[in-house]
């Protein structure tokens, strides 16, 4: 199972050093949460921050767009150095167009799905996606409790498309990761459980 620490829980005054620290600590991907204050009731950062962080790690940058208009901004995040881009099926833009933009840039495309959305919403796109991001909390904030019932979506997706990597995001920690693994999750995002730990390497090793 790959671990993607989310810098949402990092020290924002030292983001470059935090990215280097989780890279050294064994992160597989670096997860960057982009929020627009509209799709979710919170704001984070944009493509300039992704570009500024890019030289601090060679690990894949996994950019999670929690924004209403991914089509307007996806190009800027690709230019900034995103390797994997996920956006929400609940966003306002045409999912096919966003997937195509990501693939035209030669990067990996993921569709993210909120807890209240049925898994059927992403099924028409499975054949073209590089991964699916199943939210195990309501998007917008770190530090929330894991919603174990969302693992049902992981099982359903694995039954439909066994080789398609599934990422989960929200509430992943030492207690919740085993159930995720058993459900077939391939990539776990982890914010608080890594960045609130005294030893990032130990926190990542424990999740693995
Ligand atoms: C939530 C974000 C998550 C968040 C996870 O909207 O998408 O990536 O950082 O944080 P934890 O691991 O603290 O639940
Ligand atoms: Zn995220």
What features would you describe in this structure?
- With 208 residues, the protein is of the alpha/beta class.
- It is built from 8 helices and 8 strands.
- It has helices at residues 15-24, 47-53, 70-79, 95-104, 151-160, 177-183, 192-195, 200-207, and strands spanning 2-5, 30-35, 61-66, 84-88, 108-113, 131-135, 166-169, 187-190.
- Helix 3 links the parallel strand 3 (61-66) and strand 4 (84-88).
- Residues 6, 31, 33, 64, 169, 189 line the site of zinc ion (ZN).
Question: Helices and strands in order, then pairings?
Answer:
Layout: E1 2-5, H1 15-24, E2 30-35, H2 47-53, E3 61-66, H3 70-79, E4 84-88, H4 95-104, E5 108-113, E6 131-135, H5 151-160, E7 166-169, H6 177-183, E8 187-190, H7 192-195, H8 200-207
Parallel strand pairs: 1-8, 2-3, 3-4, 4-5, 5-6, 6-7, 7-8
Bound molecules: D-xylitol-5-phosphate and zinc ion.
Residues 6, 8-9, 31, 33, 64, 137, 139-144, 169-172, 189-193 line the site of D-xylitol-5-phosphate.
